[in-house]
Amino acid sequence: MKYETESKQIIELIGGKKNITNLVHCATRLRFSLKDSTKADKASLEKLPYILSVVDSGGQYQVVIGNAVSDYYTTIKQLAGIGEASSEPTKGKWTLNSVFEVISGAFSPLIPAMAGSGMIKALLTVLVQLNLLAEGSSTYAVLSAASNAVFYFLPIFLGMTLATKLGGNMYVGGAIGAALLEPSFTGLIEVGRTDFLGLPLEAVSYATTIFPIFIAMAIYAQVDRFLKKFIYRDIQLFAVPMIALMIMVPLTAILFGPIGTDVANALASGVNWLIDSSKLISGFVLGGGMTFMVMFGLHWGFSPLTLENLSKYGGDPIEGMAVAAVFAQVGIAIGFYLRAKKHSKMRALAGPTVMTGLLAGITEPIVYGIILRYKRLLPIVAIAGGIGGAICGVSDVTLNAYVFHNIFSMPAYTPTLGYLAGVSTSLVTGAVLAYYFGVKQDEMTDFYSENQENNSQESQLQGVTMVHSPVVGAVIPLDQVEDAVFSSGVAGKGVAVVPDEGRVVSPFDGTVIVAFPSKHAIGLKSDTGAECLIHVGIDTVNLEGKFFEAHVVAGEQVKQGQTILTFDKDQILAAGYKLTTPVIITNGDSMNRLDYVQTTGEITTDTVLFSVSK
Questions:
Q1: Which domain covers residue 471, as residue numbers?
Q2: 3-state DSSP helix/strand/coil percent for the chain, to nearest 5?
Q3: In whole angstroms, what is the distance from residue 339 CA to residue 385 CA?
Q4: CATH of the domain at 68
Q5: Which of these ranges, 69-73, 159-163, 369-373, 575-579, has the smallest mean pLDDT?
Q6: Which end of the chain is more exposed for a tag (fewer CB within 10 A), N or C?
């Protein structure tokens, strides 16, 4: 079994096998139904390296795993002996949490089929638009059937998942849903108003509907439970389902179906009215707030409304706006990936999550692995998602097929330009804000390369300063600098770099000891005592600060890789100055040794130029 050791740890920390009443999973989460959630050790679970987060919400104890969730699910079910028994979350009373639990539990098993079918719809749209496939062809018909089946027969599938969730027999639940689609019943639609045992009956199409089967299954679970109390056990096998079907199918056709349809129409109309009242505000709220719904696992509450809108109107504006949240999250991961150093923990985390978000539309690893760890990202994801959602709102963007929000599902949205404008704005805004404002300086441990971090720690213990290049460019020996003060070594030993870009970073962890008024040079002292001068250009002091901008002041603490100075490379060169930048140790007399690591070739700010020891 895969992840057996890890799964045993989860079972133990969740409160043991006996504390688990049911388990389902979605794209990234294990969703436990527990007898007593207080027995679960959330703090210990979140410390496990393979768990991204733990959320107790919506009546479920959700353990966020990531892409390997299905393997964990299979192993935990085997180890804990969990079958298909119901968790009966609503037995005794209905609460808001239990409603969300039922909705989530009903849709979670159907996600692969719905997502796959939706992507086929998107593919068909592209093929037709490119004239690669005729809409009336037999090939189109077959693929269209593949894409429509799960949605057309949704009452059957939901009848099965809901019955399982609520404590009934899953196949009887499916049969109740199937009865609404059976030709004998659908044939009554053309008849119009008719009757059942004298009771008025008006048959309507229940294909792709959601709410009628939800109401029917909530009642069926109680009927099934009631019948089992009074029917002799030896005949329950056929008697309970027979009576349940004879009761539930007519009641659903006469009562629950029309009520569910009216509820669905009312909710869809209410949401659409709100959107029509202010598309700008609705878009900002949905785009900015959907990430927080995902955090608590409550986003599935929108699925019935989305599917109802798709069935009734052919398009859903809710997901047409909420899609901006997904790209805002991906943008944040991109921003952090770019901010982090090569071979750093953050790059190792952010890189795969960007790909998963863009290619599959699964962003829980970003939400739990990055956004919740760095609190500055919470307002950033709200702002980025809100702006993009507002653009989608005023552009009347709708989702026209049930798909995951990813780069392949673009054909499922109209209008295309409005969609692209909204999601692109969210992605870029999220990336820029995360890069510049998403993390405090004292939270950047995971942004440094592992080699850099290990070298830094080891060097500090030994009193050694590893001096990294403060600029990206080409390193040259100091004696090649066209300035006698530097080339002779009088000012200090070191090397020089010819920069490729106008940014200077700190070459080590330390303190700013001199910030020159002309901004062309800066003096730093490492935590181990080495004093370093970075002098940008030759004779650039004559510019008197023009084309330079300092980002630190004397006395300020700095980290290796932190931007300390920027300059306009092109303007300085145009003014006739060379940009050769000496990097020298000015207190060499108090240091015992300087060992050169690299004196020629192209380098980056991750490159160690030389080391200095006491």
A1: 460-613
A2: 55, 15, 30
A3: 21
A4: 3.30.1360.60
A5: 369-373
A6: N
Helix (H, G, I), strand (E, B) or coil at 403: coil
Pull the structure tokens for residue 368: 């739990």
Asked if residues 583 and 541 have their Cβ atoms less than 8 Å apart, the reply is no
Instruction: Say yes or no: 152 and 164 in one domain.
Output: yes
Q: Do 149 and 164 fall into the same domain?
A: yes
Cβ atoms within 10 Å, residue 440 = 10
pTM score above 0.70? no
**Active-site option among 25, 299, 468, 535:** 535
CB 20 within 8 A of CB 14: yes
CB 170 within 8 A of CB 84: yes
State the SS3 of 541-554. HHHCCCCEEECCCC
Using the predicted structure, report yes or no on whether residue 90 has a pLDDT greater than 50.
no
| Residues 328, 382: Cα–Cα separation, whole Å | 8
Active site residue 532: no
Q: Which helix (H) or strand (E) holds 511?
A: strand 510-515
Distance of CA 583 to the CA centre of its chain: 42
* Residue 17 CB neighbours (<10 A): 13
Write down the catalytic residue from 26, 392, 468, 520.
26
Using omega within 30 degrees of 0 as the cis cutoff, is the peptide bond preceding 112 cis? no
Give me the pLDDT at residue 536, please: 93
471: closest CA among 500, 509, 494, 449?
A: 500
- The span from the CA of 490 to the CA of 473, in Å, is 24
